[in-house]
UniProtKB/TrEMBL annotation:
Gene responsible for this protein: maf
Protein name per UniProt: Nucleoside triphosphate pyrophosphatase
Keyword Cytoplasm in annotation: yes
Compartments (UniProt record): Cytoplasm
Family (UniProt): Belongs to the Maf family.
Superkingdom of this protein's organism: Bacteria
Main location: cytoplasm
CDD domains: Maf (cd00555)
The protein's required cofactors: a divalent metal cation
Catalytic machinery residues: D86
Source organism (scientific name): Brevibacterium luteolum
Pfam families according to UniProt: Maf
Molecular function via GO: nucleoside triphosphate diphosphatase activity
GO cellular component: cytoplasm
Length: 236
């Protein structure tokens, strides 16, 4: 049983948490991102990332607290932490979302290559306490982290090759540093985890504000953490 619910289907966010010792239960939100953005036409790119993260988190919270049968794995025996996030790249003051297509990916890289962009990731966290027959929200925290990214100027051949991998189609700003795209990032100012989609230092801070310790979310007990190999206990 995991102590963390990840309100995102992002493989990168999942991998970031598992590498950090946390295996979350994934519950993907049903939020219409385009509709949420339309409701906030004057929001800055950073504000929009925060709005989307909170919308996704509250969608999943609503489904959990409605006591949908089997939504959370395991019995309610300890607090859980819900983590929702949304990332948007900002270039020239404008949001650059997931390109989805080869054509749009090419346009983004022709505009972005050799320049500086900013990756904003909105974070929304909630503490869920067991009530005996369900869950109640004991607190929420929200904050957006921003990282400055310096990119290389790509040749047409490099853009073609990157497009051929299909990697950039479903990532914010057609860019990721934990794959083929890592070679195209010449420098980062800020938390590199944030570029992948989840700032671990910020998440730790927000978890602390919710009255829990980050290490309590690890998939090892206090005793097992002092050992290695077969002594480590994995959470289900």
């Amino acid at each position: 049983m995991s102590a963390v619910i990840l309100a995102s289907g992002s493989p990168s966010r999942y991998a970031t948490l598992t590498t950090a010792g946390i295996t979350p239960q994934v519950i993907v939100s049903h939020v219409d991102e385009a509709a949420v953005q339309d409701q906030h036409p004057t929001a800055s790119v950073a504000e929009l990332a925060g709005v989307l993260a909170e919308a996704k988190g509250r969608d999943v919270l609503g489904r959990i607290t409605a006591r949908n049968a089997g939504l959370l794995a395991g019995a309610p025996d300890r607090p859980r932490v819900l983590i929702a996030a949304d990332s948007i790249l900002e270039l020239d003051g404008q949001p650059v979302g997931k390109p989805h297509t080869p054509e749009r990916t090419r346009e983004v890289w022709q505009q972005m290559g050799g320049r500086t962009a900013h990756l904003h990731t909105g974070h929304f966290l909630a503490r869920l306490d067991p009530t005996g027959d369900g869950w109640q929200v004991a607190g929420t925290r929200a904050q957006t982290a921003s990282t400055t990214i310096h990119t290389a100027a790509l040749s047409d051949a490099e853009i073609d090759a990157y497009i051929a991998t299909a990697e950039p189609f479903e990532v914010a700003g057609a860019l990721t540093i934990d794959g083929f795209g890592g070679a195209f990032v010449t420098g980062i100012e800020g938390d590199h985890h944030n570029v992948i989609g989840l700032s671990l230092p910020l998440a730790r801070t927000l978890v602390g504000e919710l009255g829990l310790a980050w290490h309590e979310l690890w998939d090892v007990s206090a005793d097992a953490a002092a050992h290695t190999g077969d002594d480590a206990l994995g959470a289900g």
